[in-house]
Amino acid sequence: MEIKRISSHTLSIYLNAADLSELDITYEALDVLCPHTRLVIRQLLETALAQTGFDPDGGKLLIEAYPVEEDGCLLLFTLSHAKQEDRVRSVEPTLFLFSAFDPLRQACHQLDPNLPSALYWQNGKYILS
Predict the structure, then answer these.
(1) What is the spatial distance between Cα 108 and Cα 57, in angstroms, rounded to a whole number?
(2) Which is nearest to 64 in space by CA: 121, 115, 126?
(3) What backbone torsions phi and psi does residue 32 show, to the nearest 5 degrees?
(4) pTM of this prediction exceeds 0.85
(5) Cα separation of 24 and 40, whole Å?
(6) Contact at 8 Å (CB) between 9 and 82?
(7) Average pLDDT of 20-37?
């Protein structure tokens, strides 16, 4: 699990396949109406609070989930009072690695068209920046 504070209003959590297995959830099973999903999100946010100080209390929280390579996923948490330009800004680029086109295509549909992105092909893999 990799937790990064992107801004004062935005947090990212990368979960690999082992993390998802430990949490007993899959990307496909994430559902806001599911009590288990809510429990997992609550656990992740408690861990993030302890590690980064990110506290979503006091506002609405936008949760975005993106599939990533090797059956993992990336979760983005944005407080509703965050400015649009703060939503997914990082000092360094975020890279996603895909070995197949379909997961890449699914991830691209989730990108903000106002943010710059680039796609590379190297050693038989797609790299999305």
Answers:
(1) 30
(2) 115
(3) -60, -25
(4) no
(5) 9
(6) yes
(7) 91
